[in-house]
Amino acid sequence: MSKADKHWPGGRQPSDAASGASGEDPTSSFHRYFELVLADTPALREEVYRIRFQVYCREMHFEREEDSPGGLEMDEFDARARHCLIRHRGSGQFAGCVRLVLADPQHPEAPFPFEKFCLKSIWHDILDVRNLPRHKIGEISRLAVTSAFRKRLGEIATPDGVATPTRNGNGQPERRHIPPIAIGLYFAVTAVGLLENLDGVFAMMEPRLARRLVHVGIKFSQVGSVVQYHGPRAPFYITRESLFANLKPEMRTFLEALRADLAPAMDG
Fold first, then answer.
1. What domains appear along the chain, each with residue ranges and CATH number?
2. Phi, psi of 47 (to 5 degrees)
3. Which of 38, 49, 75, 131 has the smallest number of CB atoms closer than 10 Å to its CB?
């Protein structure tokens, strides 16, 4: 690792190998720069809540600062969620977080976040949520990357650092790969879902992000209308079968590596 890499985010960012943007192996590239951590202690979960406060309250203004005492952004879904962090090896900083909300075992009919805020937008003729077994589904939410790791053009404007593609001199959209940290978080939470033996997961996201995730083999299906929820978002759903049907071989290897990283902590 170069001196600049070692001290990143002060130095240059690593390549986009983890998004499949180069010939470099995404698994070794990710592990060289980052460490995946299951936030399974109170101290680690505080790190998650601090990142969310900084990104969701102070930077994006999705949530009110006054509703997050102590600089910790929390809600009622955290107690039944699995939380992941990504730590940058060179600096030791936590670069981002994500959670997977699970069904409440004591109250299985308790709503998921998308049901609480956006249930009316669901296309029930496409997917009847009411018929899904609650213990076999989850919801990806609160994905956030710290501003120190959202340095490229346009990344600071989004919580996950996935910038809207710009246009070149000919008016054509320039291809921008999803940053490695965002890719790591999406694949980390996918690995959590597999370890929890879920059949499928929901996510509220911008349709443009769903289209870009297809490039790395994560093919969500839109199952509802766009609503204003932390910006323009629509409900999306992905099944286990769809995931494995679309993953490129190198990204499947990456997913399996992250699952192996998380398995000891989740089994413990």
1. 3-101+117-162+180-262 (3.40.630.30)
2. -60, -40
3. 131
